[in-house]
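Table 4 source record.
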Amino acid sequence: MKSLGTSYYSTSMGLGSFTNVFVMNVIANLSKRNGQLGWITNNLNKSRLDYYYVVIACLAMVNFLYYLVVVKYYVYNVKLIELNKLGKLSLEMEALPATTDETNR
């Protein structure tokens, strides 16, 4: 189980890195349109990283809003809760009938 957790962690970190590179390239290419100096350049003094971080913050806000929508409409075990309210849910253990092997002992 430990190696499975480590592999999931490594995979998610790798996918996150690829996603970061993809988003950065998309933002850099979109900001260079019409012959303007892009937001992300080789010279940090001329780069507009503040715009880049605003876009990243907006993406995080959209992700948070999506999370809130999913949480609002998520229902946990609705059938069990409804059956319990109606009194039809019984979680007591019942004895199984004896098998032929147990009766011969």
